[in-house]
Amino acid sequence: MPGSINLDPPNCDCSSASIAQVEDAHCCLKQRFWWMLHSQTLSDISFIVGSDSEAKTFHAHKNVLSAGSSVFRSMFSGNWAAESSVRVPDIEPSAFSILLRFIYTDDAPLTVEIASQVLYAAKKYAVFILEMQCSEFLQKNLCPNNAFTILVQAKSFSEKSLAESCLDIIDETAEVAMSCEDFLEIDFPTLCEVLKRDTMEVKETALFDAAVRWATAECSRKGLEVTRENQRSLLEGALPLIRFPLMTQKEFTTTVAKSGIFNNQELVDMYYYFSGCSEAPFKYNTTSRSSKEPLIASRLSIGNCSFSILDPESYHGLGFSFSKNVKLLGFGLYTHVPFDYNLKLLLYEGKKLIYEDESVQFKATGDEIHRYYLKTAIPSMANIYYSIYILNKEPLLPTYTLHGTDGKTEITVTDPSGQRSVRIKFLSPPFSIIEGKNVKNCCHSGQLPAIIFKW
């Protein structure tokens, strides 16, 4: 059965109107290679993809595949040189279809449902650009409903950065994420990894309820009767990671004691703790989980009695990039008493506008830097170029502010635990993005003294 390549041709920059009346016109290299793949013209290799019951056949060209993948190049130069058919049982046909389409046309129509499978295919055949696209796509589409599914896949693909982003989402939305069906599908090591995290925003009662639900699902997977004894056996090693001493006595009684998961001695130990008669059992952590505090990257110093006028005819711009994936929370803005500020703020990813605030209003309070927080945290990808621009919206009133100097072009920020750090580069902003206004470069001096972010 022939494989299903996406039959819609890839988008290109050519004007379809100019070639619409020319039959079989292939306006550019991308369109011509798509036609080669779709028509199977002069194909010299076929792939039987998927499990036996759902296998599909794809036809392709060894030369094209060799140009796009070192793995294909090695295959067709070695043991597979004389072969005309290759069996690929470990990749879904729909994912293999996108892999071929990308090699031929640089086009990959990804969805959340298929991106992980395409990532696996791209890794298997060493198509590195497609790997990056899949990883970035999954990063941008992470949500509580899919965080656990993508976490398991990211770990199996050794995508460390993607896995960390999944854990960040789980930290922030733990109760919602654990209520989703994909949480019940995780393995025991992943369950323990989540339960031991210090940065989750969640009640311990919710963690206990989630762990019991997971044990119920695990009983079904293992063909075990759902009993308290079997649930307890499956949770051995995970229960000590739940911080029972942080519950109130009432919460413990109505949630844990009532469940039947604890044995009598464990119940006695906990009630002794609640009554103040003993220390907490040593196997339970008594330290509160704490959400991650924002990190601030400060790059400018205050000029010596230097002031600037925020010119309403000019944007103040700054380019920047992170060495790791983070969540962008906001920016530091210089102020000066007694002025009120009314600014416009634009944020770009490359040439794409990703955030706009037409009314950034605040009053100087005496602090040299006002912390402006975005209305929503923006996932910022590693090594992607971003730029921010601010504009004074008070054309009739001169607005004075402080002026920073000695701008750093690169700084490293480490979290309070000392376990993670990120390098931030500061660059000149693209001047051509903003039309009709001048752009003042704040890379080495001027405005925008700080960036606020978190993991």
From TrEMBL:
Cross-referenced SMART domains: BACK, BTB
UniProt keywords, alphabetically: Cytoplasm, Ubl conjugation pathway
Classification via Gene3D superfamilies: 1.25.40.420, PHR domain, Potassium Channel Kv1.1, Chain A
GO cellular component, one term: cytosol
Domain BTB: 43-112
Pathway annotation from the record: Protein modification; protein ubiquitination
Main location: cytoplasm
Cross-referenced PANTHER family: BTB (POZ) DOMAIN-CONTAINING 2B-RELATED, BTB/POZ DOMAIN-CONTAINING
Organism: Bemisia tabaci (Sweetpotato whitefly)
UniProt cross-references to InterPro entries, sorted A to Z: BACK (IPR011705), BTB/POZ_dom (IPR000210), PHR (IPR012983), PHR_sf (IPR038648), SKP1/BTB/POZ_sf (IPR011333)
GO terms (BP aspect): neurogenesis
Name this polypeptide is given: BTB domain-containing protein
Cellular compartment(s): Cytoplasm
